[in-house]
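G., the chain you wanted modeled:
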Amino acid sequence: MVAVLFTITLIASAGVGAVNMITVEPIAAAKAAATEAALGEVLPAFEATETTELTIDDMPIKVYTAKQGEEVVGYAVETMTKSGFSGVVKLMVGFLNDGTINNVNVLQQAETPGLGTKMCDEGNPLLAGVKGKEGTATFRVKKDGGEVDALTAATISSRAYLDAVNRACVAMMNMTGQDAPDGVSGATATAENNEQTEPAAQEGGQNE
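Predicted structure as tokens:
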């Protein structure tokens, strides 16, 4: 029985290893293609990028410095938050070289269909509230005293989106040698606000 069990385990392990070897390269290629597509959505025309990895609020952040020849034309920040209504939200936030936000692309989200998922819609109020604005700002929804309209019935998702954008702004300022407002991450302040309001809202089953 021991020999049979060992043989079955060995065959199963070999099968899993073979499948992993077959799929690892296509998965990596698909991920790279998705990243390139997202960079194209949020940046002006560029020839090449240089990648810098940062840690902000204990979260991994990637900054892509876009160049046309030797000239820096912008920065794209692969940012994230853990404060979404359904967990992690990842964005690609593009900045022009003058520090203004050029565009935002949603990379990952698992928000409520028809509510939080509207952050992916073209021209949604969250995108409209940050696009073209200075990346040195700290963005908040109007409910929290800010100037950005939240998605209807999706305040938690809206806060999460802006939390990730704020973290991207901190990363961009880090790259350009600027200080974050008040010397702290605006993203951290937004996340703390979420912690205070999110549990009661989720108990009621509403994204408010």
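Residues 182-205 have pLDDT under 50 and may be disordered.

Shout if anything looks off.
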